[in-house]
Design goal:
Helix 1 (18-29) packs parallel to helix 9 (260-275). The chain has 11 helices and 19 strands. It is of the alpha/beta class and 428 residues long. The chain has helices at residues 18-29, 67-77, 88-104, 134-145, 162-169, 194-200, 204-214, 235-246, 260-275, 402-405, 408-427; strands at 7-16, 34-40, 109-111, 117-120, 126-129, 131-133, 149-154, 176-181, 223-227, 250-253, 279-282, 285-290, 297-302, 306-317, 327-329, 334-336, 343-344, 369-370, 390-392. 30% of the residues lie in helices and 22% in strands. Strand 9 (223-227), helix 8 (235-246) and strand 10 (250-253) form a beta-alpha-beta unit. Bound molecules: flavin-adenine dinucleotide. Residues 14-20, 37-43, 45-47, 49-51, 257, 285-286, 318-320, 323-326, 337-338, 394-395, 402, 408-409, 411-412 line the site of flavin-adenine dinucleotide.
């Protein structure tokens, strides 16, 4: 007998990293009722850039300006890469839908449709990325045109040095100035935190005091770069108001994790998804799942003990890798932690890593993960879908090395789109 107390959903998404959040958004946009379970994923660490494909082949460290041509070459070279399960038009549709969802929540991204953009890092190096937050976009243009520019850092902010950034850039960008300012109201602190400053700048009176600190340092600078602290939300308002107060355009530079742009992404998703009626089981985990996928799955959720049980017609597994907790490595092998799905991995632990840590070809362990069919369904040991209605998305998937390929967000977004599309197909 079914228990009438147990809530039923069309789909349960396991994981609240970028892949899980994107999957929930795609599913909610299809009108599905969604339950989402999981702690915050790696999204809090993200620079805020959304990469599609920045490097291929990784062994040659070949940096790509055209990520779409790069995807053609990648799927030829690595036919099991998750990108090979989708057409480029589907990947474009996934990005379009995701960016318009984020824009509707107030988080605007910019991109050059067919090309990567060159963006600054917190070290003063540059990287190729596909989508850049509104708050950083003027920095992309400045990096190209190199106008006289002031780079600011903030007294007490660890891991962000204007001088380090300008030292790295000055050979190609001669007109760079640096300055260190105190953040108003925090000048007595030995250490200041990005989230606190981002929160403070939401208030107009704090922006006025901040602008007063900045203005004396501008001199001939035509633009000002600063750490990513321009509001936890309402960033467009914060940026345009500060630009008026300071008198020149401004742009953010990513900081070390945990980052404000990552927090913004998470908050934007949560706001937008709540408005779509998604049920969150946040700061909890899926403890066990029953069902063979022919009927509803029954899913136990809690911290250590079951606190809720829900039913769902389908599941999207977006539980990440080792940090997220979707994969676990013991001394012998790598395991998938919820369904004990087979994990593609080297034959023995001795083969997990190459001899040199920085070997550009990467390490086999980084391509370990769950293998899927063309419908994003994890495979059992007999190479058949483990369950009819279990799908997987994100960094848990085998055959990607997103850190080296610079495809973290793209992999999460595209595979989430593919998983939801396949679930919709079996519902028809
Ligand atoms: C330092 C850092 C910087 C990055 N910078 C960028 C960048 O600049 N550009 C870019 O494109 N990408 C970047 N990324 C990568 C990107 O943000 C994503 O982390 C990556 O794509 C993986 O996302 P994911 O959702 O697959 O996994 P994760 O983010 O690891 O999320 C996994 C989720 O699964 C949940 N989970 C695990 N087990 C369970 C369970 N039993 N029950 C319920 N939930 C469970 C976890 O709680 C978590 O919510 C960066 C990542 C890091 C770590």
């Amino acid at each position: 007998m079914t228990n009438p107390q147990i809530k039923k959903y069309d789909i349960c998404i396991i994981g609240a990293g970028l892949a899980g959040l994107a999957a929930t958004m795609f599913a909610a946009n299809q009108g599905l009722s969604c339950a989402q379970v999981g702690h915050t994923g790696e999204i809090n660490f993200s620079s805020g850039h959304l990469d599609l494909l920045g490097v291929h082949p990784v062994g040659e460290k070949k940096v790509l300006t055209d990520p779409w041509a790069g995807i053609d070459a990648l799927v030829q070279a690595i036919p099991d890469h998750p990108y090979a399960k989708l057409s480029k038009e589907e990947i474009r549709t996934a990005f379009r839908e995701l960016l318009s969802f984020l824009k509707a929540t107030g988080l605007t991204y910019h991109r050059r449709m067919n090309h990567n953009s060159t963006a600054l890092t917190s070290l003063g190096t540059t990287r190729q990325t596909y989508c850049v937050p509104h708050t950083m976009w003027k920095g992309v243009a400045a990096l190209k045109k190199k106008p006289p520019c002031l780079i600011l850092d903030i007294r007490g902010l660890k891991g962000f040095s204007a001088r380090q950034i300008t030292t790295a850039l000055q050979r190609d960008w001669p007109n760079l100035l640096t300055a260190r300012i105190s953040f108003p109201g925090m000048d007595h602190l030995n250490e200041v935190y990005m989230e606190h400053m981002a929160n403070a700048l939401i208030l107009k009176e704090n922006r006025e005091k901040f602008a007063q600190e900045v203005r004396p340092h501008i001199k001939d600078s035509q633009i000002v770069g600063m750490p990513a602290i321009l509001g936890l939300y309402r960033t467009q308002e914060v940026v345009s108001d500060l630009e008026k107060l300071i008198g020149v355009p401004i742009f953010e530079i990513p900081t070390i994790p945990p980052s404000v742009p990552g927090l913004r992404l998470k908050e934007a998703f949560e706001r937008g998804l709540r408005a779509k009626g998604v049920q969150y089981f946040s700061q909890t985990r899926v403890l066990s799942v029953r069902g063979n996928g022919e009927r509803d799955f029954e899913i136990d959720i809690g911290r250590k003990m079951t606190e809720d049980t829900v039913q769902a017609r389908g599941i999207i597994l977006a539980s990440g890798r080792f940090i997220g907790g979707g994969l676990y490595a013991d001394r012998q092998r790598i395991k998938e932690t919820i369904f004990d799905l087979p994990v593609h991995q080297p034959g023995s632990r001795a083969e997990w890593h190459r001899r040199e840590m920085l070997d550009p070809r990467g390490h086999a362990v980084n391509r370990a993960g769950v293998e899927i069919d063309d419908a994003f369904r994890p495979l059992s040991s007999s190479r058949r879908p483990a369950f009819k209605a279990l799908f997987a998305a994100g960094s848990i998937l085998a055959h990607n090395d997103w850190k080296r390929m610079k495809c973290g967000a793209g992999l999460a977004i595209a595979s989430a789109f593919g998983a939801v599309k396949s679930f919709m197909n079996i519902c028809r």
